[in-house]
């Protein structure tokens, strides 16, 4: 039976492309049969990327029972497959903080503090002296541009930029920034999308000192695109909070050109927002200047605030 | 302030040498000031290795408060520094199963399913194209011989053997196996050692489904060396169980020549031993044929047995 390579819930482009790339690399480096899968359907941005480079969307798998697993782009149980303890994690490739996943057996882990899992995977291709296939190289560079908001995010490192340069050469892409803008326009498209899908497009639950905290993010090229949808999104947040038994649900509406985020807030304890960001909620939201990265600029201050 | 590199409690040779080697590598690869430290004094085997290659024993540090930390050779909170959540883990280098350590920030992790953390570190030196200093190469090869019981342990991989070959060349060591035998003779020496020190020489507490389970190991070149000490060791295990509030304390008396272990057992539920190994405790112990590795042959079956 094939090992499965799988990213986090509500898959983003990095999670989808990392699963595809790691599967390719492990086949070639170790001769192992690895199948890329995903916990859900690909979002419009990922579909654009896969179509552009002629790659197939991964099959959907949501349960770990009896599987050998390579986890990509996450190490949090709440973002992972159901019944993870009934499968065996054989490897982890990630670029986030270390979460609460544990294993029973020794494993392989490639985790770097860079902007994108695909940057780690480029390093692994180099380490194992395996060539990145042309279509996978194209998709990987898009994943890096997506995760780093075209190099603007504070999570972006030199390693990410170098990886994009090298991958662009392999993929034969001469102007990757214009592909990036095209991709973010696809990502910004909200018309006709049900509110629920919009909230879930990039939504993650975190365990913060025992409290369930959901944080979603929508990145757009111009925040005004979202103005007509704020009330509908807030109503969806209320539903998600109730259904999930969450302490808090936050939604970052990120303007990648203005380089900041309006955060819609729904919480049992509004003081955590002030503790975390030194600003009070006005109405239903707070403007966070310069905040582009949930991972680096939102999760750590909230974790501190929830600690007490 | 320097970053500290630190291994697990009751440091063994791999933990000591990994801290020293990682500190050297991070200085050279990243230009960072890293200081190797340890959670306790070096054991006789490690002292032999450090003396042989002219290396100093690391300073003792037991609290993480306010420190930036590189964790080596473990990811279990119970084996780590006190107040780990009051420091910041910036990197992890290990070869064990993934434990319950988590972080608030993205980090670097190098974890491979090989016989010794020093094998991973040899791979890192290669990756960063940094030369291993001669004395550190000598100590690293001893750590690998120690952790893999001179390649006999089932945890030993081809990567471990290749690393030893390469490190021996760098260290100018022509007959590393005879150094290995010398080292294991030092390790086997028990005369004059207080029982408490003997139990603690390589002792680790694990959290198994909410139960505290201590597992120690003594490796000797001939099990009969330990016959006069069994009662004294058992009495120490009783003390440790009481003081630590443990559910169980096990001590592996490993005969590296016969390739098996007598496991002294002290537990609130003797059925876990039968569940884990299919053998009943006779008197105070059970003989486990072919069992040399706590990590690979003892911890996983116990974890399964404790799960129910
Ligand atoms: Mn990612
Ligand atoms: Mn070790």
UniProtKB/TrEMBL annotation, chains A, B:
- Cofactor requirement: Mn(2+)
**Can you list the GO cellular component terms from the UniProt entry?**
cytoplasm
Documented EC number(s): 3.6.1.1
Q: Does the keyword Magnesium apply?
A: no
InterPro entries on file = DDH_dom, DHH_sf, DHHA2, DHHA2_dom_sf
Which key words are in the record? Answer: Hydrolase, Manganese, Metal-binding
What molecular function terms (GO) are annotated for this protein?
inorganic diphosphate phosphatase activity; metal ion binding
Reaction(s) catalysed by this chain's protein: diphosphate + H2O = 2 phosphate + H(+)
Locate the DHHA2 domain: which residues?
A: 180-306
The record ties this protein, via SUPFAM superfamilies, to:
DHH phosphoesterases
Hydrolase: present as a keyword of the record? yes
Q: What is this protein called?
A: inorganic diphosphatase
Which organism does this record belong to? Alkalidesulfovibrio alkalitolerans DSM 16529
Q: What is the lineage of its organism?
A: Bacteria, Pseudomonadati, Thermodesulfobacteriota, Desulfovibrionia, Desulfovibrionales
